[in-house]
Write a structure and sequence with these properties.
- By secondary structure, the protein is an alpha+beta fold.
- The protein has one domain: Catalase HpII,  Chain A, domain 1 (Beta Barrel), CATH 2.40.180.10.
- It has 5 helices and 10 strands, in the order αααβββββββαβββα.
- The chain has an 8-stranded antiparallel β-barrel.
- α1 (about 10-20) packs antiparallel against α3 (about 35-40) and α3 packs parallel to α5.
- The longest helix has 17 residues, at about 220-235.
- It is globular, with a radius of gyration of 18 Å.
- The two termini are about 25 Å apart.
Length: about 240
């Protein structure tokens, strides 16, 4: 198969395309191939390439056994922009964090949405916006949605990542995390606090399709399969673990 003529870096793109031809004909895997090629060209994530990684904590507010099994513990979080547009240009904002449940990593990824729970919406600021899981999670026979809101007031308007870094240099970022059963109303679940910036030469590959709590799974299955293939292709495209 001929290689794709792209200046940066052509050998990585060719390898990504050849790898795709060697795999089976799984539809989700084939549809996710552009993600690998894009990551190879950019040498970073195709989506949410720009972000701030930070250490923090999550504290459960909901009563034990009510809803999703989030527990108190340390987290690594990431605040990001989907397209990576510069400065304060509007973009889809992202919030991700990794916690540990029963000695297993659990990744949660949220993005800014419109009034519903699954339509992505660009935003002009980090606060006054809602971050949604976009897909519900199945747990103990029920379906649950997650959303979050930044409760910390930022001094600088706009959507610059510098404002996130500056704030974390002076104090914490706090988010209110909520859950809803099916089409029901959202209620308090946890408080997420990001406190310490991790140097930009470190990275963490979040994958909510692989890293999840026991008994918790994204739904529907066909969309989860596609996302799993896309995350894997993204890691392969940029040679990340």
């Amino acid at each position: 198969m001929p290689c794709i003529a792209i200046v940066k870096p052509a050998h990585a793109v060719c390898a990504a395309v050849r790898a795709g031809t060697r795999r089976g004909v799984n539809v989700s895997d084939l549809l996710a191939l552009p993600v690998e090629v894009g990551a190879a060209v950019r040498q970073r994530r195709l989506f949410h390439p720009a972000g701030v990684l930070a250490r923090g904590r999550i504290e459960r507010i909901a009563p034990p056994g009510q809803g999703l099994p989030i527990e108190d513990g340390d987290v690594i979080g990431r605040v990001s922009k989907a397209v990576g547009l510069p400065g304060s240009v509007p973009d889809v904002a992202g919030l991700a964090w990794r916690m540990t449940i029963d000695d297993r990593p659990w990744d949660v990824l949220l993005a800014t949405t419109a009034l519903n729970r699954f339509l992505l919406l660009p935003t002009t600021s980090w606060d006054n916006t809602t971050y949604s899981s976009l897909m519900p999670l199945r747990y103990q026979g029920g379906v649950w949605w997650l959303r979050a809101r930044l409760t910390t007031k930022l001094d600088r308007p706009g959507l610059s990542l510098d404002s996130i870094t500056d704030r974390l240099g002076r104090g914490d970022l706090e988010y209110s995390v909520e859950q809803a059963a099916g089409t029901g109303q959202f209620g308090p679940l946890a408080r997420l606090t990001l406190s310490e910036v991790i140097p930009p030469d470190h990275d963490l590959s979040f994958d909510p399709t692989l890293n999840t709590a026991p008994g918790v799974a994204l739904t529907p299955g066909w969309l989860t399969d596609f996302r799993r293939a896309a995350y894997r292709r993204s890691r392969e495209g940029r040679d990340a673990e």
